[in-house]
Amino acid sequence: MFGRLRRTGSRFWIPERRPRLVQRDYGHTSGIMRLLTSLTFGVFTLLALPVSLVAAQKVNSITDAVAQLPTCAVACILSAVQGSPCVSTNATCVCSDSQFESTTEGCITSACPIKDALHAKNVFETTCNRPQRDHSPEYARLTWVLLGLTTFVVAARLIYKSFSSAQLGLDDLFTLLAYLAVLPSFIINVVGLIPAGLGKDIWTLTPRQIESFGCWFYLLEPMYFIQMGLVKMAILCFYMRIFDRAGLRTLLWATVVFNAVNTVVFVLVGVFQCTPISFYWTRWDGEGKGTCININAVPWVNAIISIALDLWMLFLPLSRIRTLNLHWWKKIAVTLMFCVGTFVTIISILRLQSLVRFANSKNPTWDQYGIAFWTCLEVPTGIICCCMPAMRLILIKSFPRLFGKLTERHNSKKYAVPSNEEDRSRSRNRISRVPVPECSTTDLQPAPQNSKNVVYAGKSAVEAHDSSSLFAMTELEAGSAKDSMSRSHRSSSPSRSSIAMSDQAVSTRR
């Protein structure tokens, strides 16, 4: 609001109670009171008197506005006008004089209750014809766009998995729960926060709107903690599906437990940070009674822990990609896919910057717009990132010519399986690059005898992983271990050429 405000333990700051100005008892001196009233009306009348006739017609409305000023603000305005270098008839000069405005605000803040101070500020802004700032239309558009995108990706993911061979898992369940948890926030944004004055200056609002704004903002805080906890849980469950190593799964389980405990603790702190709970949104005017903890510390600590947890969750999969049985090009693609989650971390950092003015805001409905904006953007972005692997598969299935060509071209270079004998002889070297299971004499079966010689045909198996799906990453990770085992078996077992030579010698002797 105006001047220096002191911290109250709530989101709103109220002015320090300085000693009131020494004022005379104008009620017992009717002559002085009439003189003061006439001077007050004269000052504001002169401020609004331009040379044109159109401005002269506004005198009555300004006079009515001055008549509504609280008594505590009248003496402050008169004192500031007398000390201003501007001529009293020059309204443009007076309204643009920052020294006049600063002196008036400081005096009114110390002399008037907060409601009267806001009313006086509103009168001053209206007298100077200053435009009203309003970011609520932008916030409404952002809410509707994010609601549509989030609904689309979650519905596409669940429908695709329901009608495909992929099975629904815990990651799908937590993604759905996160979506259901974010729906009330979208509703509160449109029905609650915007009508309560989010994105507007606080002196343009009624006391009822300000109280309603604090109430809705209070509800959104624990809901935000729940939503981010569910998003992180969905990502962790996804990691547990695609990584099967015991060491990594132990770290993932520990992270799951930490995330659950962290979410529960912050939800409880957010709900019971004021006693009584209603004191959270009723103390803005300095008239309520109650106590609050250091509310500014709650979102700060939560944001720092959330960013650190995001970085840890990004490190876990990236540290295991080098062990996957994938071509280096595909490893880069998988790394980039996991790095999509860094968008959520970036938004969390930007949201943390908006918390700098969280507790010391003089104009909370305007200054806290940044917090509401980044919070509204962070949770849906996290849900969309959870659905990115499924959306990739949906795009490949829906548009194979557009999104499947690159994958097929790359797979054909490494996992080419010829369809006839001529192609097999032509691409024998390429097939031999693929890890082949151990071939022993027990795998050899006699083929139909077309001559006197006995010809043995061996079964060959080529294991080609579907690396286009990240749900097969368990087999890919285990494939690196299979490669080393198969190489050791092949080195200890007889080669195919030696078996063929021995068979040929036997047939010759016969």
TrEMBL record:
Pfam families: CFEM, Fung_rhodopsin. Disulfide bonds join 72-112, 76-107, 86-93, 95-128. Residues 44-156 form the CFEM domain. InterPro entries: Extracellular_membr_CFEM_dom (IPR008427), Rhodopsin_dom_fungi (IPR049326), SAT4-like (IPR052337). GO terms for cellular component: extracellular region; side of membrane. The chain crosses the membrane at residues 139-160, 172-196, 216-239, 251-273, 293-316, 328-351, 371-395. Residues 414-451, 478-510 are annotated as: Disordered. The keyword Amino-acid biosynthesis does not apply. It is a lipid-anchor; GPI-anchor; Multi-pass membrane protein. It is found in: Membrane; Secreted. The keyword Ligase does not apply. Keywords: Disulfide bond, Glycoprotein, GPI-anchor, Lipoprotein, Membrane, Secreted, Signal, Transmembrane, Transmembrane helix. It comes from the Eukaryota. Residues 439-451, 499-510 have a biased composition (Polar residues). Belongs to the SAT4 family. Belongs to the RBT5 family. This is CFEM domain-containing protein. It comes from Colletotrichum higginsianum.
